Amino acid sequence: MIEAQLPVLQIIIPLMAAPVCVFLRNATATWALATIVSWITLAISIVLLRQVIAGGEIAYEIGGWAAPWGIEYRIDLLGAWVLVIVSSIGAVVMPYAKVSAEKEIDKDRLYIFYAMLLLCETGLLGMTVTGDAFNLFVFLEISSLSTYVLISMSRDRRALTAAYRYLIMGTIGATFYIIGVGLMYMATGSLNIADLATIIPDVAHTRTIQAALAFLTVGLATKLALFPLHFWLPNAYAFAPSVVTVFLAATATKVAVYAFIRIIFTVFGTVNVLTDVAIHDVLAALAIVAMFAGSAVAIYQTNIKRMLAFSSLAQIGYMILGLSLNSDAGVSAGIVHMFNHAMMKGALFMAMGCVVYKIGSAQLSDMAGLGKKMPITMAAFVLAGLSLIGVPLTVGFVSKWALIQAVLERDGWWPIAGLIVISSLMAVVYIWRVVEVVYFKEPANGAMEKDEAPMSMLVPMYALVGASIYFGIDGTVALDISTEAAKALAGGHQ
Amino acid sequence: MIADQLIPWAIALPLLGAIGLWLARDHANVRETITLVTAVTLFVIVASFFDDVSSGARPAWTYGDMLPGLSIAFEIEPLGMIFAGVASFLWIVTTLYAIGYMRGHHEPNQTRFYICFAVAISSAVGIAFAGNMLTLFVFYEVLTISTFPLVAHSGTEAAKRAGRIYLGILISTSIGLQLVAIIWTYSLTGTLDFEPGGILSNDIQPVIIAVLLALYVFGIGKAAVMPFHRWLPAAMVAPTPVSALLHAVAVVKAGVFTVLKVVVYIFGIDLLRDVGAGTWIAYMAAMTILLASLVAMTKDNLKARLAYSTISQLSYIVLGAMMASGLGIIGGAMHIVMHAFGKITLFFCAGAIMVASHKTEISQMRGLGRKMPITFICFLIGSLSIIGLPPFGGVWSKWYLALAAAETEQVIFIAVLMISSLLNVAYLIPIVVRGFYNDPTAETHDHDQHAGEGDHAHPSQHLAGDASGPHQLKLAGLAEAPPLCLAALAFTAMGCFALFFYADTLYQFVSPIVQGGPQ
In chain A, which residues have their Cβ closer than 8 Å to the Cβ of B66? Predict the structure, then answer.
């Protein structure tokens, strides 16, 4: 009985927990509530994934109102997979947050922090679960607004500016999105994604729909930080509280990519929009620029969190490149990288959170000799860094393999494979910079004894590191699901 | 088959040993015992496969899928058997040598050293026994990463720089070139399994075959074909046991072994012969042989000279592979064994000289042979094997390589091999001659007073009355290397001699894979 209600429970439980946090006020109590809720959410998403694998797409009508007038939740394999990604990151971040948030956020605001974190998770989960284009906007804004608050909660003054910039750019992006939805509604009379997919082919040639597609693409590109609409991301990741960065880096852009996939491959699926409107060349070009520009700028950063943020831009480039290939293999490569990147980047930012917790700074020059002081944390950084480079036995290798293989399947795209490889090698440079300072430089103020981060931070971090190695040794699980999800996307690709 | 089940143990055993080493990190003697026991057991396991493989069986074991349709799989065939046998056997000898060297030189971080050694040997065995190119690539990368702490062992600025060059070149070539080749092969053929006769078919355009071959050969950076050779001399900053085992045996042989494996089992000798894709790479290899020998002649630092000699000798094997003839493969496989024994002897001697007399430059070694006669005689034996003179093993591998050149009517390569032998004489024999016949140079210090000189490259915690092992064997007016070092280098030198008589065994062992031997 309750299984039938799971799609809506996935949203309601974290949503309702947020105001309860505000009432509770006490920092520890809210943390405990948030942790329990995040674990329940994870359990629900796993059950949903298994339901979808066993029984196919799930459709759930909110309040019993039938689609296309009522709001409908639709979970196919891709959606269920993204749900699991987001909720597992949430479940891992909550235990980590207790100690890290206490250090970086004012104690009397912690209850707001957890409330916002829960709301953010709700928003992201809602974007994934919904089958209604307008409802997607609602959840998009829920997650965005809570994100702006979360970023600004850092004690670092620069966080306020970063949050403000993200607020402006994010609102513009969301507004573009809703304009696009509005234009589609005018032309088709429907807001339901599945319904739109059937109506769009008839009106695809009209100016209205082409404009709608443009607005939707630009709006979502802002949200997923595709070059050149990425300017909000580096500072937002660098100056936000470490926990927030971990959560955002591992989830927010992934869900935006998911929304992008929904629009391109489901709503416009039968129109084959990528080739007809030739977006795929534009997307591929922007993705490649993102790959190189992101990696290149990362090499010169002195703030390691900012370096990892620029690295994320490059990784998003890989995902979009996979999508732009417009083939089963390409979309599958993009999807699997969503999963793998969440683990890698989550682990890397968690390591940086441990560093900030212990030495109060994320500057590379302050991290000299940290290999002796915090060996376990730095070992996690190295392992996750190897994954970023794409060394075998890590998830990064699985992603690279899938992506290069998808590119080589395309006639004449083999130079792109070379570009992918070159940008991977750039990752070697910026990871190596950190390794050299951490392990080979003497600390400025004499020898450091071992002073590791607390267990509540190490365990979640190693959960992510362990996952990135486990799924690197057995890459078939993620790749099988991603390939199935890519195939299940309605039409739109060969 | 029991042999199948033993394969995962061969790979896991050094890793288990590494755990044991970490547990015994504060008890040096226990730790050394664990290393030796692990090494001997590993060799026993590896040797147990020999009979099966020589009778034509191919023990195999699969771990599971890593990517859809691609598994981590192992299959033992003659080339892999040879490589694993050489690596595991010489691990035992090197461990004995390392104990003598590390203690005599008072090296720090010895536990880290032995642990990384164990992991490196495990990955070498993984490479040797790999049943498909994906498995080989996985262990190839693990080998690069596990040997990095060994290269940068001493932590000095030079060591850090060397580590940067080492990692930079090896990872760039493997991810930049080799991985692309592997994925491309997979998308062309749908498989990465090693099959006798190759998996690439004649239907593929010759241009693609040629590009693929180039991607593989230059992507296998461990084979040190120019211009991707700089990591080898850079890695000489590592302690000598590292140079000996890894950069004369495990790492470099992994490189050329992979080249041989790719040529025989991915491309197939017939395909290469038909397409002629290997010819220009053969010329690059020939150039590497000559250029590296010439550079070796200019080096005064003994290990640097030996490093460039190694680069030159590795290209013998690459040349053998690129000539696309069965004899070339056999010659190359033989050279893996002969060169391993010869070069490890030379490196052992270099390390012995450094520990006993703190000398690293050849110009300082005049007359040293009179104080260290055993070392220098073994150096002579190793040199003669490398040069390719009977009665030492090196003559046979050169012989078969020259025969391959004759068979494929590429006489120029015979000339290259002969000139290279002459160059080998020019840069190896003078060391021995000067050691015995010249008078000792006017030394700035008597080598008995060794406190405080910065003569040796390693800033060790050096005490005049060393407590943990002698750094010289003083006997009858000699000042030889420590006993364990001496035993090791004498043993491998005798091995060079013994191998002279086992060439036929090797020939018979390898020839089945080249379809009945030479035409």
Answer: 398, 473-476
Say what percent of chain B tops pLDDT 90.
38
Alpha carbons B237 and B469: distance in angstroms, whole number: 23
- List of chain A residues whose C-beta atoms are within 8 Å of the C-beta of residue B160: 436, 440
Q: Cα torsion at A224, A229, A230, A235 (round to 10°)?
A: -120
Structure tokens given for B19: 């755990």
Amino acid B451: pLDDT: 39
Is ipTM over 0.95?
no
Q: pLDDT for A164-209, tens place per residue? A: 999 999 999 999 999 999 999 999 888 888 888 888 888 878 888 8
CA of A332: how far to CAs of A259, A403, A417, in Å? Answer: 15, 8, 16
Count of beta carbons in the 10 Å neighbourhood of residue B19: 12
Distance of CA A131 to the CA centre of its chain: 20
Reference A161, options A224, A245, A236; nearest CA is A236
Q: What is the pLDDT of residue B318?
A: 93
**Distance of residue B155 Cα from the nearest chain A Cα, in angstroms:** 7
Provide the mean pLDDT of chain B: 85
Residue count of chain A: 494
Task: Mark yes or no for CB contact A475/B186 under 8 Å.
Answer: no
Cis peptide leading into residue B482 (ω within 30°): no
User: Which ranges of B238-372 does DSSP label H, i.e. alpha helix?
Assistant: 240-245, 251-261, 269-275, 279-298, 302-322, 326-357, 368-371
Whether the CB-CB separation of B138 and A393 falls below 8 Å is answered with: yes
- pLDDT score recorded for residue A247: 95
Q: Three-class SS of residue B300? A: coil
What secondary structure letter does DSSP report for B240? H
What separation in angstroms does the CA of B318 have from each of A335, B126, B348, B494?
Answer: 41, 21, 25, 27
Reference A90, options A162, A24, A153, A143; nearest CA is A143
CB contact under 8 A, B186 and A474: no
**CB atoms closer than 10 angstroms to residue A203:** 16
Q: How many alpha carbons fall within 13 Å on the CB side of residue B450?
A: 24
The Cα-based distances of A385 to A89, A322, A404, B212 in angstroms read: 18, 22, 20, 29
Percent of chain B surpassing pLDDT 70: 92
The pTM of the full predicted model, rounded to 2 decimals, is 0.89
Please write the tens of the pLDDT for every residue from A95-115.
999 988 888 888 888 999 999
Mean pLDDT of the A365-390 span = 90
The SS3 of residue A59 is strand
Structure tokens at A276: 């007809």
Give the per-residue pLDDT at B475: 62
Query: What Å distances lie between residue B500 and A31, A114, B215, B312, CA to CA?
Result: 74, 75, 35, 21
Average pLDDT value for residue range B435-462: 50
Residue A47: partners with Cβ closer than 8 Å, 6 or more residues away: A3, A6
Closest CA of chain B from A239, distance in Å: 31
Average pLDDT over every residue of B86-114? 85
Q: Do A404 and B152 touch (CB under 8 A)?
A: no
Average of pLDDT values for B199-226?
Answer: 88
- Write out the E strands in A151-245: none
The closest of A81, A486, A489, A57 to A265, measured between CA atoms, is A489
Does residue B274 carry a pLDDT above 90?
no
* Dist. CA A175–CA A185, nearest whole Å: 15
> For residues A130 and A120, what is the distance between their CA atoms, to the nearest angstrom?
15
- Residue with token string 């500057």: A363
Q: B307: distance to nearest CA of chain A, Å? A: 26
Q: In terms of DSSP bridges, do strands A72-75 and B70-75 run parallel, antiparallel, or are they unpaired? A: unpaired
d(CA A142, CA B97): 67
**Is residue B65 classed as helix, strand or coil in its secondary structure?**
strand
Q: Would you state the pLDDT for residue A337?
A: 94
